[in-house]
Specification:
Chain A: One of its GO terms (cellular component) is membrane. The complex is a heterodimer of chains A (about 120) and B (about 525). Chain A is an all-alpha fold and about 120 residues long. Chain A is built from four helices and no strands. Chain A is elongated and about 75 Å long. Chain B is mostly helical. Chain B starts with a helix and ends with a helix. Classes of the chains: A mainly alpha (about 120), B mainly alpha (about 525).
Chain lengths: ~120, ~525
């Protein structure tokens, strides 16, 4: 058990972060904080992909000039590319989400979900 | 590279590139969005039909992006096979047809049509992609465009519904991404073809990698259950469908969840493969259970709704439950039934939501009670709604019948008797809510409930706000471009606002739903190669 935690702590951390993000989305009444929860949730996944790509003593995956470099330990570049793409997607989502929150605030004058429910129930 | 091989890439790239055109032209001219969208979607429909004729004649067409040359599993591939082409045809034809409604019915504005084209591009990409990570990107493109389209409604409710969908949809896509991460850890590949070959070997070897595959499937299935709106993860869908503008709901109801359900089928059958699905303990049982419960919960909730659009939304939950349950049966006939039902449900729901929009526009009716006596006053929309509802119940001859028939036969073949019972029960429950509407339209006199709300003050969706305060910032994105003209889903019913195009669209959808009821054999012939390949 301790050995697993010592060698795989990155995965454990990822699920802790994932849980915190999920909890923020569910339990927080403030819409902006909900969106921060979504971001945390996504960031946990990015860190997971980065830790998947880690290679012990691995270098940055750049092919050296030497035509016969022999055996090289390199970090896998593919997950990094995936994370870059996913970050871009995440930014777009955050932007759309914030735009929606601005509109909700302009219409109802509140950012809190419980107040929003009351306002909508009164209408 | 022949010209047919270029088509899959062009189908994805052209709508996404042209999505910028309405905004750029909008700087000079006010109302170009509709024309650009109409020309593009009609062109895309022609291109997908050309692609379909090539695929059904000569087998699948593969386009390798980025100049990797022959398919080798390194670059991202776009694959048009018998399954994906059929979905692509549904996407482009529906997208082109629904424009007949939005021309008069709104929403208007160049930015709206930019989002529309982005949505079509994303859906086509999602249906063609042959790479599991690329599928995530397209899922999110579709999601982003959908959130923007839902929030283009006039009322403030639409923004709340869109935000709810945004949060849940992002979680769904993120769970899918975790699943992709586990798949990548187990196999080191992202290409569906390569994954499909690697997974049986890992499953045979067993050990830790097999556990990774199980975890990957669990995350991917839950992610898609959210996107497809399976009970109990369906809560975003009724709000989103009800509060989206009337011109948007047909597109998202017919296409967004359908293509997500297609993607689930693609991942289950092309990536994981039949052997993995059958060999993993409890996997098929769980998939079938989720689908069956969605069928029952969705249709029960539909029966108790008062708002017509909300009722149709819950009906979607139950119809997609049938598709997911059919996936879980893992027999050839059930898979064929799932695909036919995907197409048929998309067609019928597009028609029903267009009908709901037309009736709201021309008659001001939005709740089941307000539909009273509709058949006398608006015979054409009422008749089209009736035909589509009967098709949705699954009374032959209709496309709804052949889908359900194949699923029922598949469940008998798999000896999963509970599913056969669920299919039968779903028909009964669909009849329950469809009959409510039919009874109101044809057998309840209108006089008692004539215009229950004064003009411009219809209760749903805060319609009265449209000409009041706040419109400037209320729907800034959707309104600004056309100078504050607001027709959209404002609820004053006037027959003049119903155009000939809308009625033609409605009638042709209803006719198509019946005519395709005779096409069961054609579907089986078209999809035969795909289904055979999956099961051998």
């Amino acid at each position: 058990m301790i050995e697993i935690l010592a060698s795989r702590y990155a995965y454990a951390l990822m699920f802790v972060l994932l849980g915190i993000g999920m909890y923020m989305m569910i339990a927080n009444e403030n819409l902006v904080k909900k969106l921060i929860g979504v971001n945390l949730f996504q960031t946990a996944i990015f860190l997971f992909f980065v830790s998947v790509a880690y290679v012990q003593d691995g270098k940055a995956p750049i092919v050296p000039d030497d035509p016969a470099p022999g055996e090289l330990a390199m970090a896998s570049p593919l997950p990094h590319v995936i994370v870059l793409t996913a970050i871009v997607v995440g930014i777009a989502l955050t932007a759309v989400g914030l735009a929606l929150i601005v509109r909700i605030h302009a219409e109802y004058g509140t950012l809190r979900e419980d107040t929003l429910r009351e306002v909508r129930a009164d209408e | 590279m022949s010209s047919v091989e270029l088509l899959p890439a062009l189908l994805v790239a052209i709508p996404i590139l042209l999505a910028a055109v309405p905004i750029v032209l909008g700087l000079r001219y006010d109302r170009t969005g509709w024309s650009v969208a109409a020309v593009t979607t009609v062109g895309l429909a022609a291109a997908t039909i050309a692609l379909a004729s090539a695929v059904y004649a000569d087998g699948q067409v593969v386009h390798v992006l980025g100049g990797w040359g022959e398919p080798q599993g390194i670059g991202i591939e776009l694959v048009a096979d018998e399954f994906s082409t059929l979905i692509a045809v549904l996407v482009t034809v529906t997208a082109a047809a629904v424009l007949a409604y939005t021309r008069i019915g709104g929403p208007r504005g160049n930015t709206f049509y930019a989002g529309y084209l982005l949505l079509v591009g994303g859906l086509l990409g999602l249906s063609m992609t042959g790479d599991v990570f690329n599928m995530f990107v397209f899922l999110e493109i579709v999601g982003l465009a959908t959130y923007a389209m839902i929030s283009s409604g006039d009322g403030p409710e639409s923004a709340v519904a869109a935000l709810k969908y945004l949060i849940l949809g992002t979680v769904g896509a993120s769970l899918y991404l975790i699943g992709v991460g586990f798949l990548f850890m187990a196999t080191g590949a992202l290409n569906m073809q390569v994954l499909g070959e690697a997974i049986p070997q890992i499953a045979e070897a067993g050990g830790g990698d097999l556990t990774l595959l199980h975890a990957a499937f669990a995350f991917i299935f839950v992610g898609f259950a959210l996107k497809v709106a399976q009970w109990p993860l369906h809560t975003w869908q009724p709000d989103a469908y009800q509060h989206a503008p009337d011109g948007v709901t047909p597109v998202i109801a017919a296409l967004v969840s359908t293509v997500s359900a297609y993607a689930l089928g693609r991942v289950m059958f092309t990536v994981f493969g039949v052997d993995f699905l059958v060999a993993t303990p409890y996997l098929t049982e769980i998939v079938v259970a989720v689908g069956s419960i969605s069928v029952l919960a969705g249709s029960t909730l539909a029966v108790i709704q008062t708002d017509v659009k909300r009722m149709f939304a819950y009906s979607s939950v139950s119809q997609f439950g049938l598709v997911v349950a059919a996936y879980g049966l893992v027999t050839e006939t059930a898979l064929l039934g799932a695909i036919v039902h995907l197409i048929g449900h998309g067609l019928m729901k597009a028609g029903l939501f267009v009908a709901a929009g037309v009736i709201a526009l021309g008659y001001g009716a939005r709740t089941v009670d307000e539909y009273a006596g509709l058949a006398d006053r608006r015979p054409i929309p009422a008749a089209a709604t009736a035909v589509l509802l009967i098709a949705l119940i699954g009374i032959p001859p209709s496309v709804g019948f052949i889908g359900k028939w194949y699923i029922a036969v598949g469940s008998v073949q798999a000896e999963m008797w509970p599913v056969a019972a669920v299919v039968f029960l779903s028909t009964m429950l669909t009849l329950a809510y469809a009959a409510r509407l039919l009874e109101k339209m044809y057998f309840t006199p209108a006089s008692a409930l004539e215009s229950p709300h004064g003009p411009g003050a219809v209760a749903t969706d805060g319609g009265e706000r449209t000409d009041g305060h706040n419109t400037a910032d209320a729907g800034a994105e959707s309104i600004a471009a056309d100078g504050g003209i607001l027709v959209g889903s404002s609820s004053r019913g006037s027959p003049d606002s119903v155009s000939f195009g809308m009625l033609a669209l409605l009638v042709s959808t209803a006719v198509l739903a019946v005519v395709l009821g005779f096409a069961g054999g054609t579907f089986a012939d078209l999809l035969g190669p795909f289904v055979t390949e999956v099961f051998n």
